[in-house]
Amino acid sequence: MLYVELSHRLSVKSPLPPGVPPMQVQHHYSIERGDVSNLFVLQLSNHSGTHIDAPWHFVATGLRICDFRLEEFIFERLLCIDVALGDD
Question: How many Å apart are CA 69 and CA 67, to the nearest integer?
Fold first, then answer.
């Protein structure tokens, strides 16, 4: 079966919705500085990059993203809709 990933790679240059703080990547440990490993600290919001909003995002009693199984995000028939966006 062929799977098509519908996400984009996340980076500090990824576009964000208005008001969402930018992603930050801190190189915490570095082999070049003499540390035993490379380690990065990531700070990002749940609206960084492509994502799926669970019902809990908008409804206090809704399901959280961890309430869903991965298989529920695999679709056999897809539809792509081209929607023109306004200034908002």
Answer: 7
What is d(CA 78, CA 31) in angstroms, rounded to the nearest whole number?
A: 45
Q: What is the pTM of this model?
A: 0.60
| 57 is a catalytic site residue | yes
Q: Which residues contact 10 (CB under 8 A, 6 or more apart)?
A: 23, 44, 48, 49
pLDDT in tens, 66-84: 999 988 888 888 888 898 8
Q: Active-site residue among 8, 28, 51, 57?
A: 57
What distance in Å separates the CA atoms of residue 77 and residue 4, rounded to the nearest whole number?
A: 12
CA angle 73, 60, 58 (to 5 degrees): 55
| 3-state secondary structure (DSSP) of residue 46 | coil
Burial class from Cβ neighbours inside 10 Å (0-12, 13-18, 19+) for residue 56 reads middle
